[in-house]
Specification:
By secondary structure, the protein is of the alpha/beta class. It is built from 7 helices and 9 strands; from the N terminus they run αβαβββαββααβααββ.
Length: about 270
Amino acid sequence: MAGPNDKAYVFKRDYRAGARLDLQHYHWRDTVGHLIHPQIQFDKEDVQILDIGCGTGVWLTDVSRMLSSSAMLTGTDVNLDQCPPRVWLPSNLSFLSWSIFDEPPENLVERFDLVHLQLLCFVIKDSELIPTLRRVMKTVKKGGWIQWCEWDHPSNTIVKVDSGAPSLSLENLLGQIRQGITHPTWIAGLENRFREQHLASVQQFRYMPSFDNLPSMMAVILMGIEELIANKDQGTAKELEELLAHAAAEVSNGVAWLGPSVEVIGRRAW
C-alpha cells in the first residue's frame, strides 16, 4: 500500500521490481567491491547501522552476514511492502516506515554509527538535497559515518562492441523516458555538499563496471524502464513498449549505456 509520501517513487513495488532491486544490489556490490567502505572502521561490535530507502532490505541482510550478531541494523522506507517478513529476518534486523522528506522520529535521532543511502537520484530533486542531507545527519551520532552511493547517470555514454552497431532506439528510449522524472544535477556535487555541512573525512570514489557485467546491467536498466513505462498513459506506453523491444534487440547485439557509480563518505565530528 502506498503511503502519503510514496508519490516521489516512480518505480513499481511488485515482485518483478523486487527482483530488479536485488539484482541491482549485487551488480553494485561487484562493481565497488564492498558493502561498507574499507575506510569506515568501527571500534566495537555492537554498532548501530541505518539504511535509508532500504527497498527490499537486501543491503542490510547482506551486511548482517559480515557483522557480529550484537550489531543492530535498521532499515527505513516510506513503503515496506518489498521487505521480507519479520520472522524470516535476523533477530538484530528491523524495518521502520519513515520518509526522508519528514523529520526523523525521536528514536532515530543521533543513534547510528553508520547511515547508508543508495540510488535516491530519481527521488530527490536538486532543491531537496540540502534539507534531506540535514535530516539524514540528525540520525548520525557524533563520530558516526554517512555513506551515500549513487549512479551518476548524467555522465553515462553509449558504448558498442562494433562502432557501426545501431543504437538509435536505445538513445531515443532513454531520451523519452526521462520526460516526467527527476533529473538531478546534485550527484556530481555531493562531495562538496558534505563538506558544506561540515562533515569530516569526506571523500568521493568513482567506480566503473566491468564490461562482462554490462549485458546483465543493461537488463536491470531495461527492467527499470519497463516499470516507468507502466506509469504512462495507454497510447504513450504502447509506443514506448515498441521502442523498448527495439532497444533490447540493440543491447543484445552489443550496445550498452555505460557510466560510473559514485560513493561519498563523511563523518560527523561534532
